[in-house]
Design the sequence.
């Protein structure tokens, strides 16, 4: 029977593999590592790359923490507040130098409690500064293929979940072009823990080939100062989503997590201009028109 | 008896006076005005100045809105959810060009319900990029004098409230050097509505002389690229406070307020570097040591 140590070990190896793949494609940047210990139990291995050729700021984080179940789970009615929990995961956010390379985020996680409850969660989503239909098709098709190997319903179900989750209500915009998002996946009569873990591994393994392809394809595309300014505004929206809505960020800050690891998702710089609206018939305007739910990218 | 129309009218005039004072001291920037209408009732007059000599991005906002009482007040047990409300206020955030000029925020507001409940709230607080004891003394002494004219307990009480409110738990830092903050001030056996309004007017009238003095005193101080980089990091903290903790921002976004007016508080640009810590014996390090509660500035 699959146990938490095996899952944890695999997540650590995935962090290693992804860091190597990103460093290779970047060609200059190197990850620095901070090992941290959580007072209440466990800790993590935060790896950050800043000022690479392609990556401006990126984090690939592993953590495995344990302790008394946090309050929010008691509220969600999966705990009586007395159990202990164990949680492990890998979280990634990459902000590229070029506005022509998309921002990407991935997370996979495993959670279990001493009352026997356990689940997997995770997802990958893409936030292009300029939405490019070709990249959108490539990204979503890759995810669909990965999902289809495990369950023919996963892609549509988890794509919708991502559309709903990565949404900024006060802007009436999706954060980017979505991807897949899933949570609380646990064994049922038709799926075992091992099968779910195989799916989560598939998602984890998809990250490096997807993002290094998008880096390689777009890193040499030329851009202007005005493209760069637009990138800063889009990063502003990324900051808004992460600080106002993202559940992982909220959970981390509320449970006294390691702030510098949680907020590695924020870009090196971002911009806000009052009431900025791109002109019609520009690629910026086109991008806004594609930051909507329910677009079929495959 | 003082009514909401009189309060509203005074708030509008205050907006005018403050905009004129800021434009005069800036010497270049001009406020642009957007009038907006709230679907559920009322609206506002948003005035924004961008790219001035001294002010990089500043907003001086007036609004007067009404309608069915929002849910959050029903939760706070001051409403049965059936009443109508009327709320009016002036809100200001100024981000200066120079790291040597502090960021400032002011808000004064009046709220009433058809069930007869009403109150005033507001405050002013200062966020220097570099904390300067002389400016801190000037700022707090001005506020103390303004408070003392009305009630000898106000300053200490409202200064503590500001220390507690303008605090970033995940950084264990105050946002800046505080100021005064107050809410739900209503008539008692010892204070009338007219007296409370006179205090709120005192606070509103204090804004322009305080901030134009700080602009004039600091705008010509020279600075380096490294001071500018520090300013961007401090602005990052300002963004974190406003998006994660500020109740006005949360309330505005949750109640479908005008996003561009609510988020005028965000700076033109801001920066996040992973785990940046200033060296000992630098003015940046000194500033961090002064971002604490319970410092006596007067």
Sequence:
């Amino acid at each position: 029977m699959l146990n938490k140590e095996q899952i944890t070990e695999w997540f650590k190896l995935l962090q290693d593999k992804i860091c190597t793949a990103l460093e290779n494609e970047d060609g200059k940047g190197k990850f620095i590592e901070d090992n941290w210990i959580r007072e209440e139990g466990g800790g993590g291995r935060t790896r950050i790359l800043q000022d690479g050729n392609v990556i401006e700021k990126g984090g690939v984080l592993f953590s495995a923490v344990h302790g008394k179940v946090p309050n929010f789970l008691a509220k969600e009615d999966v705990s009586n507040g007395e159990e202990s929990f164990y949680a492990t995961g890998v979280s990634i956010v990459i902000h590229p130098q070029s506005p022509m390379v998309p921002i990407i985020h991935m997370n996979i996680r495993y959670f279990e409690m001493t009352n026997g409850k356990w689940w997997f969660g995770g997802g990958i989503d893409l936030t292009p500064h300029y939405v490019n239909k070709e990249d959108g098709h490539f990204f979503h098709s890759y995810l669909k293929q990965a999902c289809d190997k495990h369950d023919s319903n996963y892609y549509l179900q988890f794509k919708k979940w991502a559309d709903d989750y990565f949404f900024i209500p006060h802007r009436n915009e999706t954060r980017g072009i979505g991807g897949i998002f899933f949570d609380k996946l646990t064994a049922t009569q038709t799926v075992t823990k091992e099968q779910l873990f195989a799916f989560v591994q598939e998602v984890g393994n998809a990250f490096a080939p997807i993002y290094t392809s998008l880096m390689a394809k777009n890193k040499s595309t030329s851009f202007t100062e005005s493209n760069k300014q637009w990138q800063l505004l889009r990063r502003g929206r990324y900051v808004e989503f992460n600080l106002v809505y993202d559940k992982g960020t909220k959970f981390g800050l509320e449970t006294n997590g390691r702030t510098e690891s949680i907020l590695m998702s924020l870009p090196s710089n971002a911009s806000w201009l009052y009431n900025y609206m791109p002109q019609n018939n520009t690629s910026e305007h086109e991008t806004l028109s594609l930051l909507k739910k329910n677009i079929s990218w495959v």
